[in-house]
């Protein structure tokens, strides 16, 4: 189970690091992709905020466990990423886009959160 949790944490970290980096450091490229199906309504400030939250979650889901310090932070980072994905699913549904990618990331985040919290008991 620990190996599966580490794999899920690695996948979450990679996915959110990529998404967050694009929103923070390559906003114009992100905007072109987001506006493909019409105006996204996401301002540069909002994209930066979301990107910073995703980058923090990407680090938070792996680093505490890897360093062996404050292990509970990994579970809470996964909970935060799950919250971001719930909002992303709502955003994609409102735009009539398939919410497949956010749903998969939500499932991974919930798996990590429950798995890491269960090991604490």
| C-alpha Rg (nearest Å) | 15 Å
Q: Report the biggest beta sheet as strand number plus sense, adding barrel if it closes.
A: none
Could you say which structural class the secondary elements and strand pairing correspond to?
mainly alpha
| Low-confidence region ranges | none
Classify the helix fraction into a percent range. over 70%
Strand content: under 5%
Mean pLDDT: 91
Based on CA inertia axes, which overall geometry fits? Answer: globular
Total strands: the figure is: 0
Order of helices and strands: HHHHHH
Distance between the termini: 15 Å
The number of helical elements comes to 6
> In the residues, how many domains can be counted?
1
Secondary-structure map:
Blueprint: H1 2-25, H2 27-34, H3 44-60, H4 63-67, H5 72-94, H6 100-120
Structure characterization notes:
It is a single chain. With 121 residues, the chain is an all-alpha fold. The protein has one domain. It is built from six helices and no strands. α1 runs antiparallel to α3. The protein is globular, with a radius of gyration of 15 Å.
């Amino acid at each position: 189970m620990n190996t599966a949790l580490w794999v899920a944490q690695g996948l979450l970290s990679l996915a959110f690091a990529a998404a967050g980096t694009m929103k923070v450091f390559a906003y114009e490229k992100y905007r072109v992709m987001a506006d493909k199906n019409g105006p996204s309504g996401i301002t540069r400030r909002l994209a930066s905020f979301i990107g910073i939250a995703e980058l923090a979650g990407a680090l938070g889901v792996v680093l505490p466990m890897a360093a062996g310090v404050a292990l509970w932070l990994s579970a809470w980072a996964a909970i935060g990423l799950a919250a971001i994905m719930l909002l992303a699913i709502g955003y994609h549904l409102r735009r009539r886009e398939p919410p497949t990618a956010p749903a998969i990331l939500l499932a991974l985040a919930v798996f990590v959160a429950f798995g890491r919290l269960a090991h604490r008991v």
